[in-house]
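Bench notes, afternoon.
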Amino acid sequence: MRTRPSRTVGAVLALIAAAWAFVLLPPQQAVWSGAYAMPRWLFELNRLSPYDAVRDWLVANGQPDFYLVFGAAASASFLLIWLATGPAFAALGWSGRALGWLVLLGAAITLLSYLNHPDDAPLHALWGAEAFVLIAIGLWAVVVAIAAPRRAGIPAWERVVLGCTLPILVLATLGLSYYPHGTLVGLGLEAAALAAWGARPPRASPATVAPEPGIAERAA
């Protein structure tokens, strides 16, 4: 059963996941919606010189497909969230561990989705499939909130937060106007709370090792 990372490290990893998704959001939204169809605040962020420098570097290195780059990079947020929530999800029993596998699946599906966004890509059917994974995460979290062991020391607030995962993801998506990047900001913040304050599996006590028999006992 996973007991690492620590609470502090887990919370930091989840916050990095949320921040990474947010950083990727302006250039990704610009490619998808067009500069003048995106929210004004995202438009202004997208004009910052670091984004221009990254785009120039990508073009100079033969990768002008910004939609692919800034989209596929969001898979790292799924991976960080999975790492951050390992102990918290383990404490929730089998349903919590299944939730962790769904999050990890999100990393793979997001990467494959953006890699296969061209119409002639071999797995083009996977384009956009990360939306279904995110919905599955939100729905399964309700199952986790109900099915988690009653005697595992899981606080009531944690069950409530898990049960509200889908609304959290929807609000984050609407507020930040794009999925999966905006959605991952919400999921990352929720994961940070679970990693920092949620229940964790008990530490295994070291096994008691019987002393080796002495010379007299061996002779007997």
